[in-house]
């Protein structure tokens, strides 16, 4: 189950093209290449691993500075300025001898740049440093990368079509559109707009009544009121929490290996996130609590206040990585360090949009993140994980029992023990009476020995006493055998025991939270692992953020041990560093994700990578304006929602202008709405809502998933001891709850969601990539669940629209598509229902007989077929 992070081929190609911007199609650069802007990135990617990072570079050759190349190594100077053909370095690269690993061979384009650079004199743009002090040399070019610059609120641009500007978002987008001679597309139709809004904020379709009400109003005042209404409802938190749970890697199982042990208490973190979104918890506070909630509490772990219990629950964010250390693993130390590595990946990708994990084994090949930086970053979390004094998942659970609850439990137990004492006394009375009755049946000379035997504990009986019992087994009257002699007495004792149990059941239930905590007083040492190998520890390192970030902006440092706190304070300091308004990454990364979920595409299309291999922002000024606005609003997520949703840009219809589509085929200029497929959860939840079956119960333990007889994973409670295949435990409506509450089992993804790209958390999901495949169509055609939803919708149509097929069809269209049915569509639907009804009427399952009435009539099943067809249509599965 456990997988290493990887870089996609598309990102590598994009990264290489960014690193080599000056090479023309002919292979000739627009100007002579320089080391800092062209050549160094090639060497860093292919060569620094052996010739720069090592304490003793191979062949004594260090390629990090040009003057080191002049000095050369064991083979003498590696370059001859002005003569690439005579330079050993170029010769080795040209002949494929270096780098030695075939998978790392330089491309022809890269080789040509190195040749041109040496032939043009092997120049640098500026004097090089006197020494590198054994650390990573970060160039001015690396420091000047767009995402590492301070966030500066840009001026809102002026545009010609001022009537199209609802707020500054529109001005930034329109300025670029007007540069190309374009403008915004017209506003979407009211029914399409209100459906888009409901799906966006709630993940559920609007009711026909909502569509009708909005269509009647359809002005900007009503639009703002509708946005506020949906943002205030509980369904908003359920929808948008799912987005955050993706990047947090939320799962209800441990993963790592095939055992994939369940996490019975992980759901508390999910509920915490839902509440945080619904309450519009300031996002900086949200980050603080998730990274360091345990460092913010004021009550002891064995007597947490409600507020501190929530803070501790928030740290579940740091307990989401795959973790197999609760069971048998091949190498426990590998498993422990893998959990820490995945946690670093989750934190850095979700909150910083940087691939810090790529520096686990060596300096980052593209970004200015050193091997030492990685372990300084890891040191922030080391006291909470402490791989050498590891606490397995069960041992990390924190009880939510308080002193008041313990006192109440003790009071209840005392009352129950009184009932126990009464029962035991009564039990002794019954046993003695029964024994005497049995004794009367024996010879009188045995009575004395029998009574002594009866009073003597079994383990202490003599051979003579044992022989007596063996000869007269009916004398062995005990609590467990009393029912054989006196059923009435036995039943009375059972009733008394049940009464005691009933009292004990009133005890406050002991609950647990899956949290991250530190062991007070223990400050583990973090060492650099040579090549990422924990068996090769090197120098000790102190906690810290990324060096390159600190070079560009002044941020608080992370202490090794904050003596003002009972913990080290490392994670709390790091959280405050991340949310410092001067930090260049956090706010940009977050608003980019918000934008991505609203528009289906981020302003930066690589939401987890703002580094060299990531994509450049399409609208950098807008990104910075949003980041600044986010911070200035008090990190209010709902404020950014309102801005985006009230913009003209978001309310556009799909593009129809051919010239605009031809000039901007990927809609990078946002000159119209983007056609978006519903995500997996929204598909299932929408079908439930349309069928009027959705259970809106909030919060609580995960709804279990189990394999069905054909191997698909469905909602249900596995009943392995049912005695016959197919036995199902009644879920009592729990199976109809929203998908956010369904168990996220890494090894058992719910089939209906998996088909529509619900991600497997390994360790998290930065971006869902919607696919189009035949399995989706097959799922909609053959899934028992889809068929059941279709039948339930048909029942609703017949219930709400009586026996009028025309009215039923019209209602189906309004429920599923949020629009009226056209005359042609109505005629085609009626024809389909008639054809299907005639087919079903010929089948035995739909014919009544004297023994059994069919479950459904041919007309009912035909209408369900129509509903299934509508659920399977693109118009339902996509939102425009």
UniProtKB/TrEMBL annotation:
Domain DUF1549: 168-382
Location of the DUF1553 domain: 570-832
Domain Cytochrome C Planctomycete-type: 47-102
GO terms of molecular function: electron transfer activity; heme binding
Taxonomy, superkingdom: Bacteria
Listed name of the protein: Planctomycete cytochrome C
The organism of origin for this protein: Rosistilla carotiformis
